[in-house]
Amino acid sequence: MQWRDQLDKRNFIFLMANGALYFSALAFIDANVLIPLFLNGLTESPFLVGLAAGIRSIGFFLPQILIAGWVTGAQNLNIFQSRLHLFTRTILILPVLSIWFGFSPTIIVTVFFISFTIFAFGEGMGQVSWMDIFSRTIDKSHRGKLLGMMQALGGLGALVGAFVVQRVLVSPEWVFPNNFALLFFLALFLLWASIFAIRMTQDPAKKDADKRKVSARYVVSHVPKYLGDHPTFRKMLLVQVLMGFNIIGFPFYILYVQQTGSLPAWLIGFIVMFQIIGQVLGGLLWGYLSDKAGNKKTIMTTLAVNISVPLWILLSGQVTGLISIVVTLAGFLSLGMVLGGWLGFVNYLMETTSEEKRPIYVSISNLFASPVALLPLVAGAFLKIIPMPWLFITIAIIQAIALFFAFRLPDPRNQESTGVPTFLGHPEPARRPKE
């Protein structure tokens, strides 16, 4: 690999380590398997399961618009992010302690939601600064490789974590909910290690930093202008929002498998494991496609896999025995692959926006994703009257529509090399927004 400079090399290593440790930690606090089972075991409430999924997504997306303008001119973002996460991640110790001290389920759930909300919003606030460091210090020739290796290494670490999860959940020495408290506690160690990695990165000084800063109010009020200046971004945003509807099913796939009677305790760990294997495969595939084939094709391939996820889960409820287990594992393998589907969108945005306005466009894309993040909460409230299969079929249809619009996306690389856009018709060429 050819390094642009020593900063490129240093930040490649530590950003990759930061992400890999973070993804490894998620094996112990998995939002698609473990948290739904944890909350369902305490409350048997689909609404609260959907609420947790909504908080995780809203907390990640919404805060970004509030600090995007500040990040464009802020200095020493590695220090800011490490201090932020030291607080917002450490607070996850509170639900662990509430379980170990034997508090009532009501108190445990309340403490969990408060801590989980702070954690989720902290991840959202840190995302813009992470992307700013990434986009300014990592050469574009290996951005896809960094993101892909980050997910792949994180997935390998999480595989070890999934084995631990499986052993803990079947162990007679760790009964519910103490088994989940142990898993959450193990997640904290890896989250703390990832904080150290981001602190070891370097954030070079920005030219005209004070002139770059804009307020959150300015960013929000000028969203129509930013969208008007960047037609390519608008098209990508439509596809990204439609793809975001896949989040509706994430917390309910495991509950559907549980309700159909094909979820013995020993299988939970293997489901987490196959989901992580999917993340490893997805990380390698999306990183390779991003660097070699382009980010438009990466987005399209991600959507094709996305369509298959609810169909696999539906099929698992229609078959029995070993076939049901195989189909279930295939569904969560595919789910793991699409969890890294953001890679294509991130690199597509990097290719089509200027450095100065990049954090703003990243936050705008996440702002539009915020309403979609509420859908698991709405779905959880209506699942008593709406069958889960209907929900899953709707998700597959929306993903197919997103794939159709993805065909119409301009391809920045084809435009750069030939000046002629490809695929269906002649879509508008990708270009940087007006300054």
Task: Please explain how this structure is put together.
It is a single chain. This protein is an all-alpha fold and 435 residues long. It has a single domain, classed as Growth Hormone, Chain: A (Up-down Bundle), CATH 1.20.1250. 76% of the residues lie in helices and 0% in strands. The chain has 21 helices and no strands. Helix 1 packs antiparallel against helix 8 and helix 12 packs parallel to helix 18. It is globular and about 60 Å long. The protein starts with 5 loop residues before the first helix and ends in a 17-residue tail after the last helix. One of its GO terms (cellular component) is plasma membrane.
Per the CATH scheme, the topology name is Growth Hormone, Chain: A
Number of strands: 0
Q: In the CATH hierarchy, what is the superfamily?
A: MFS general substrate transporter like domains
- Which series of helices and strands comes N to C? HHHHHHHHHHHHHHHHHHHHH
Q: Mean pLDDT score, rounded?
A: 81
Query: Which value, in Å, is the CA radius of gyration?
Result: 21 Å
If helices are DSSP runs of H or I spanning 4 or more residues, what is the number of helices? 21
Distance between the termini: 33 Å
Give the biggest sheet.
none
Tally of discrete structural domains: 1
> What would you say the CATH architecture is?
Up-down Bundle
- Return the structural class: mainly alpha
Approximate shape: globular
Give the helix level as a range of percent. Answer: over 70%
What is the name of the CATH class? Mainly Alpha
Low-confidence stretches: 417-435
Subcellular location: Cell membrane
Membrane topology: Multi-pass membrane protein
Keywords: Membrane, Transmembrane, Transmembrane helix, Transport
Pfam families: MFS_1
